[in-house]
Amino acid sequence: MELAVSAEDTQILLKDKNVLQESVLDKYRVAGQISQTALKYVVNLINNIYHFKTEERPLSISELCLLTDSFILTRLEQYYKNKVNERGIAIPTNIDIDQVVTGWCPELDDVENITNSNKEQLTKEDAPFNSTVTGFLKAGDVVKITLGVHIDGYTSEISHTMVIYPVDSSNVAELKPAGPLLGGKADAIAATHIAMETVTALLACALTPEKLPASLGNNVTGSTIRNVVDTIARSYNCGVVPGSRVRRIRRFLAGQNEGIIAEREYKGVIWTESHEEAKLLANTEVKDISVITSATPRVVSAVPTDNFTVSKGEVYLVDLKMSPLDGSTKKGLITLETVDSFTGKSHKVDQLVARSGSYIRDYAQTHHLKLKTSRYLLGKIDKQGVYPFKLSHLAQNFPINMENGKLDEELTTIKKELRQFRLGMSEISNNYLCVETPIQVAKWVPWEHILKSNNPNGNLTFDATAALTLPGHEVPLPKLGISSMKLKQLTKSSKETIELPVVRECNTVILCDSDVSNNGKPELLRLTGGNKTCAPSWIHSKYELNVQEPLVQGIFDLVSLTKDKRFGISIRETQPMKEISTGNKITTGTDAMEL
Amino acid sequence: MMYTCNTCCLEFETSELQRTHMKCDWHRYNLKRRVAQLPPVSEATFNGKMQQMKESTEDDSAKDKVLTKKEQRRKEKEALLEKKRQLLEIARQNMLKAMQEQQKKAESEGIMTVEEPLPIPLIQPKDITQTGEENEEAELTPDQLAEKLMAEKIANKVDIPTNVCLFCNHNQKEKHLSTFKDMEENIDHMFKCHGFYIPEQKYLVDKEGLIKYMSEKIGLGNVCIVCNYQGRNLEAVRNHMLSKRHCKIPYESTNDKLEISEFYDFTSTYQDYKKPETVIVSAADVAVAGEDDGEWEDVTDEEEGEGEEDEIPEEYLYSDGMALHLPTGIKVGHRSLQRYFNQVVKPERELTEGQGTLVAADTRSFVSTFDKKTVQVQQRAWQSEVKDKKRDDKRSAKFINQQAHYRDQLLQ
Amino acid sequence: MPSKNSINRPKLVTNLKNKAQKAGLKRSRRDQRGDFQPARSSETSKSGEIKSVALDLYFQDEKTGGSITNKTLSKKRAKKIERNLKYAQQRKLLTDLQAKVENDMDVDTALVKKVKETKDSKLSMIKKAMWNVLDDTQSQQNLPLSSSGQGTTLGGAWFP
Asked: For residue B257, what pLDDT is reported?
């Protein structure tokens, strides 16, 4: 790389700035509060539109995203005004429906394009991407809302899944959902919720490893976490979607650019296709053999492994995605397919054609741009920060002023600015200065189809349009020697591939040592998530955890530990702010509550 | 390890000593002796030999000095003058003798004009020299030629007084035009009419002497003060100077400056020049001062010495090849480094904290490890491939026109 | 233009005659040398053998009644021949040894095949194992309490 940072600076940036002190903790707390508040805001909006039907004009997804971002910025405006260099939106609000896993945050001017290029989705009601394309939700949709806030690089990210219900309009005074959600989606929601709570408890227990239940081992390691999540997923007949991770985050390194920069000292558990493959072959004699043995030299610490121990003073991002496997009786591989904006494909119902709305700047690349607009845009982007951004965030009248109620006017002004930005953005992305955050869809391919395939070229193919991959995991199926290009081809060629609905929960937690926590005991500070904001929707799943299994017993013990106030582990949650109506100056009311 | 010199049979403690020895004359002499297969000589003997050489060559040292042209000319002139004087002396004596004889004759005859003796001494030396010439034509050496010329010049010498313009070539009638009341007016006239500027007037001490020197050059030597035009007489040289406008005192080169330096006093510009300190001496101290003159001077000398150490030459103009350092402190860059002074360097990219963190944490690098030998082998293989292909193409092109079977063009 | 490749130029006869003449000259030269002397049919013929003057002289030991010859064997050449004979003997010994050693052992033809097997056997092994696992769906993978238990209920009759 052309740029390099000196050793002393590296030490400061990567180690010293990540030491948990009061100031750092405070920034995290405020970021967590704001993200919780923002989530509540969106959920309220969605409820108002679709459940309570109080809004006259239903807002489309792109508008919802923009409004939430605007809300976050206005709320953030009042905190750390001149005390911090960088603060803002860490992850632009994504609203992914059903099969779309991540990345759905279309710009205002892209809505037309999407509807134009996905006309097949509009014809049928039960087309997989119907809601995504129209921009309006319907009953039975599983909606994943993701957003993130950062103050001075200390990030808090939240993702929550909610269900849209058909409203029981019998009792107008008290609107409630018609009934619980059933079926595979319910299984996935149950599994994800339980897994999230368990992992949080597990991480809390890492502060005092002696309290860990015996069946879970002595220490909280990566493999412990993996086992726990896999068990829960298996119990609910779900599969963990590749892209899930439980990882340690640091200042400015909150997993927002995982495939772009190869972060050193990556400490975390990740789930990929290779792990699914390994799980299949776990009890066979071939569990140690693989056709592809990676020989390319790379920095060892940048490759995520399982053999790390969770320790105090670290901040973890728990991002779990699960999808139900009740679509077929066969075993299959859950894989991710990237959505691109190339039209003219074979107009199948299972294809989605769209352009991503958010971009990530790759600061290691430099290029002298020719267009003045693109140079101007790049200047603006460089001032934004190292997190993903949307072009609307760079507009003049962003954040939107909600007070005067003239939403449409504001949106049209933003659209006009977007036209300019698009021109500059094309040159910037052509020169790899910015990378689009990929839109990913979860697909299921039966193993039979993969095994029956003949792979004469082996691993020689390389998919340049593949989504960002972590170092060490460039080949999705190393045991079988199937490259990403081959896998892409296989998913497309099989007639049995299904798009799976995905449920996602993502929280940020801090393992506070006794010297930074409030009451002198080591505790887990849960920045996002918890009952106030991430309460599960009304679902009923026919599966449950099998108490006979030792691991499940360990899980139950863990949960009882969290409830034990005296001798158990303590988890503190961050409450959202009270006033969430927009446009008013608020006074923070944060009351911490011990679980 | 001891450092040695085998030629001089010496040993040294450090390499520095050895090196200094190697550079000295004694060692060189020993080397020459070794070449001549003579045994080496000790330092004392060498010094003794050197002393002897010095004494013998002291007499010749004067000859070895390289004289500048002006100095040479001056020396020649002086030598000639000397010889002229001697000649004159001889001539006078001869004349006197002749006169005495004539007087004796005249006394005996009783006729003598008084007027004649006056021009005679003037003319007679000419005649004498002419006769001398006739007598000694065969033995004319350049020295004697010079002597002759010198004598001629002295004969034609016109003494230009300081209040007469050096350059104006007026005839007898107009001579008053170039005669002034005093030297200052003369100088003024010469400056205004002919452009005769006296350089460094501030440091000039002996103005009259300078003018006299110039007038001697023109009047006696009949030589142009700017170029080395030698005129036959005063009129000629004056004409030359007027027509060529050579009415200036050349002050460009060091030689020109040296020529007239005896009329100037530049001691005040010297680096270590100290203004004579004005000491207020009371009446009582005068006697003391008078007694301890030597000591008083010593003290001031010492003080001056100390003062000198403190004063670093601040007002110095010097150039160090790349820049000219002015006494005011400004450095003027040399034009050979123009391209670097005109360079516009891209400002270093300043990273924000976030960017810095990302860059620090990033492990991507484009350095691909490649084995030089395998790459070379591969390249050689490619090259040989290309060569073979070309060779084959060339060979197959020979028989492109080969027809295995006879083709009758008129096949019907 | 007349050249070797020109089609209508009569060159058949002249070319043949040329070749015949040259062949005849060659033959006469060889005859003069004495290459045809013991006829090919006889037992002492040197047809197919190495024809070397130096070797002949070295091995002949014939003293032909002092008649003059111009066939010489230099001392240098003689030394070389002696040396080469030595080498030939050594080589012979070596090959004898090797043949002896090899005769005691059987040729391993299975070696070559084995390597190939391991290469693609990895993939085939993995594939086999995977097929086994997939076909094994009957055992163990049935989720316990899938229908017998109460299931899990989360949330409630309100909008969270």
From this structure: 86
Domain contains A352: yes
Residue the block writes with tokens 């270590």: B272
Place of tokens 């030999």: B49
Q: How far is C90 from chain A (nearest CA, A)?
A: 49
Q: Which two tokens stand for residue B45?
A: 């003997």
For residue A498, what are the β-bridge partners? A444
Residue with structure tokens 């350059």? B167
User: Is the distance from CB of A156 to CB of A28 less than 8 angstroms?
Assistant: yes
* pLDDT tens digits for range A122-133: 888 788 888 898
Question: What size, in residues, is chain A?
Answer: 595
CATH classification of the domain holding A313: 3.90.230.10
Gap from A292 CA to chain C (nearest CA, Å): 10
Instruction: At A28, list the tokens.
Output: 């995290």
- What is the rounded CA–CA span in Å between residue A253 and residue A14? 9
Distance of alpha carbon B96 from alpha carbon B204, whole angstroms: 45
Q: Strands A523-526 and A571-573: what pairing?
A: parallel
- With an 8 Å Cβ cutoff, is C5 touching chain B? yes
In a domain, A502, yes or no: yes
Instruction: Please judge whether A190 and C147 are an interchain contact, meaning their C-beta atoms are less than 8 angstroms apart.
Output: no
pTM of the model: 0.61
Binning pLDDT at 50, 70 and 90, where does residue A583 land? very low
- A426 belongs to a structural domain: no
The whole domain housing A563 covers 27-357+437-573
The pLDDT assigned to A377 comes to 94
Residue A465, pLDDT above cutoff 60: yes
Confidence at residue B106, expressed as pLDDT on a 0 to 100 scale: 64
Chains that touch C (3 or more CB pairs under 8 A): A, B
How many CB pairs (< 8 A) connect A and C? Answer: 111
Number of domains in chain A: 1
Chain B residues with CB inside 8 Å of A261's CB? 358, 361-364
Task: Provide the pLDDT for residue B6.
Answer: 87
Helix pair A184-205, A222-235: axis angle to 10 deg = 150
pLDDT digits (tens, 9 = 90+) for A528-570: 988 888 999 999 998 888 888 889 999 999 889 888 888 788 8
What number of C-beta contacts closer than 8 Å exist between A and B?
A: 83
What is the mean predicted confidence (pLDDT) over A236-252? Answer: 94
Using the beta-carbon criterion (under 8 Å), do A153 and B354 form an inter-chain contact?
yes
Tell whether A429 is covered by a domain: no
